[in-house]
Amino acid sequence: MEAAIGAQKRVLFEHIDDPNLHNIDRAIELGAYKAWAKVLKEIKREDLVQLVKDSGLRGRGGAGFPTGLKWSFVPQNSPKPKYLCCNADESEPGTCKDRVLMENDPHNVIEGVLIAARAIDCHIAFFYIRGEYDLSMRRIEKAISDAYARGFLGKNILGSGYDLELVLHRGGGAYICGEETALLSSLEGEKGLSRIKPPFPAVSGLYACPTVVNNVETLANLPRIVMRGAQWYAAMGTPKSTGTRIFSVSGHVKKPGNYELELGTPLRTLIYDFAGGILDDKKLKAVIPGGSSVPVLLPDQLDTPLDFESVQAAGSMLGSGAVIVMHEETCMVWVAELLAHFYMHESCGKCTPCRQGTGWLYEIVHRIEHGQGKPEDLATLEDLAHNIEGNTICALGDASAVPVLTTLRHFKDEYVHHIEHKTCKVKSNFRLRS
User: Which of 109, 207, 113 lies closest to 164 in space, CA to CA?
Assistant: First the structure.
């Protein structure tokens, strides 16, 4: 394991094992806020945007949109104020990488927020953090306070004439608030309901003003890019998926955890070389490569490179970087039921296909899992899922359909066995529950 850890490409995790990294004195000793000073004193705003474009950095929250390009959509001639929102509402099942960054290296994250704010000429930024992340919230709150005390935030920062305020906002723990428009509604004091796009937040976001929403991991990359250059960053990963990625590995592996690797590293390497292989040396059955809202990959796809393009070509998505591993004794109907319940619970209820459809999906899969399914249920499930897909304001509706459709596509025999024999086909640790 030690050799495997040594082989990680530690960029964001460079100092992550330092127990005092969350203290500002230690963070400054290790280079924190040097990039921020460089941005304020040496780099024009337009050059900063171009630097990040040249690095090829793409959003790490799920969509993988180019970060510099996203910033360039903000109209600089707008008379309205511009806002930057750090999306720290990490709620995708299986994802726990942003939490590690916020708890252990909060000043790097804060520095990334400051740099992004400067790039879009923002003077009030927001840090929207998941309600359940108590230690993360306390570490970020302390880091913001210390950054103000050292003059990295506030008026006339480091004598540059640039002013910036940073506001910490604790979310209520709703999954939907990880979606950027729902996050903005929540920040405005409303219920976290997603909004129809366009207009996109870059044009009309928080308080109808130009707004950029960036994920924690995305922002944490910025200080390194500023200090080491775009070419250094672009040299890692693949030509279209540059840099590193933190993968949260969970499920049936011997060593679950967060691993930082170059994008393009094969899925097999992540699971077997870093995560220790399959638990109890059983056979691999399926892998969810990017959080519970993306389709599964199968054992014969283990050599798929973990970059945005390759995973998409394999029929799935890199998403949030959460890799959920399932071995041969996993009942896939149970998996579908579990996820159907999650998305039903987390639907905000704004769209009828999502509000009603997620409940119907769960009801039918629950019935099948509990030995009460009917042969016609399978066609109904498939038809229902297809009628949710693409017919909702945000991606939660699609996310609810994916686990059902992907398990039906690859493991339909297990659904049929459940209906015909009233029990799991696999030797499962999961018992039918009444």
Answer: 113
SS (H, E, C) 371-430: CCCCCCHHHHHHHHHHHHCCCCCCCHHHHHHHHHHHHHHHHHHHHHHHHHHCCCCCCCCC
Question: How crowded is the C-beta side of 216, counted as CA atoms within 13 Å?
Answer: 31
Beta bridge partners of 88: 129
What digits encode the pLDDT tens for the residues 206-260? 999 999 999 999 999 999 999 999 999 999 999 999 999 999 999 999 999 999 9
CA distances from 224 to 13, 283, 307 (A): 12, 40, 20
C-alpha to C-alpha distance for 276 and 249, rounded to whole angstroms: 11
Question: Could you tell me which of 2, 31, 7 has the C-alpha nearest to residue 261?
Answer: 7
CA-CA distance, 331 to 222, in Å (whole number)? Answer: 42
Longest dimension (CA), the chain: 74
Helix axes 396-421, 377-388, angle to 10 degrees: 180
- How many degrees, rounded to 5, is the angle at CA 131 between CA 125 and CA 133? 95
For residue 167, list its beta bridge partners: 126
The H or E element containing residue 287 is strand 284-288
Phi and psi at 86, nearest 5°, equal -85, 120
The answer to whether 398 touches 389, Cβ cutoff 8 Å, is: yes
Q: How many other CB atoms are there within 10 angstroms of residue 424's CB atom?
A: 22
Strands laid side by side in the 244-251 sheet: 257-262, 244-251, 322-327, 284-288
Phi, psi of 88 (to 5 degrees): -110, 25
Distance CA 258, CA 386 (A): 34
Residue 194: both structure tokens together? 């997603």
Torsion of the alpha carbons at 277, 282, 283 and 285, rounded to the nearest 10: -90
Distance CA 280, CA 409 (A): 27
Q: Any idea what DSSP says for residue 266?
A: B
Strands (E), 119-229: 124-129, 165-170, 211-215
Does this model's pTM top 0.90? My answer is yes
